[in-house]
Amino acid sequence: MRGLNLHALRVCLGRNRLLVVFGVLTLASQAIILSILRDLDLLQFARAQTTFSKATFLTLAHQWESAQLLPQYQLHFYFDFVHPIWYSCLLAGFIAKGLDRRGISDRWNWLLLMPFLAGLLDLVENCFHVRFIADLAAVTQPMITLSALAANLKWTLAGLSLVVIAHLWRAPPAARN
Fold first, then answer.
1. DSSP letters along 39-65, please?
2. d(Cα 151, Cα 126) in Å, to the nearest integer?
3. Environment class of residue 66 by beta-carbon count within 10 Å: exposed (0-12), middle (13-18) or buried (19+)?
4. Percent of the chain, pLDDT > 90?
5. Distance of CA 42 to the CA centre of its chain
6. pLDDT less than 70: residues of the chain
7. What is the pTM of this model?
8. Are the beta carbons of 116 and 162 closer than 8 angstroms?
9. pLDDT (tens digit, 9 = 90+) per residue, 49-63?
10. What CA dihedral angle connects 149, 55, 57 and 39, to 10 degrees?
């Protein structure tokens, strides 16, 4: 394997049709996930994802268990394991389109990797949480730490991707010859 062709990725993901497709898939997927999680407090849900405290996570998980909400939490993973694909492609597509729009050289194509790294970290976090809810008694502090690290880095990279997109799209397009 010769390596990842970031130029080809930039050309492919920067297509308007793909931006629309990945935009629709991302919004639909997010809506489905939110509808499944509707009975869970979303702030507590975010806290469970990002906490570095085993005690905090277990307190939240046991509250959901008592309220019989763990099946809903478990159900959302059927969609949350593909959701990172959609949002990674969407964010990378907007970065690709923005780079082209500004006439920025291929040297900056590495920025396309940020959303995919965020998506990969999302999958790591999901794997931990599936394991956690399968057996709450088996949750360890190192597992919580690794899961929270993945979640917090995911959110950081997704946020940075949005900052890059805002910057690329704020400026006027490159002049055409």
1. TS-HHHHHHHHH---HHHHHHHHHHHH
2. 9
3. exposed
4. 93
5. 16
6. 1-3, 171, 173-177
7. 0.91
8. no
9. 999 999 999 999 999
10. -160
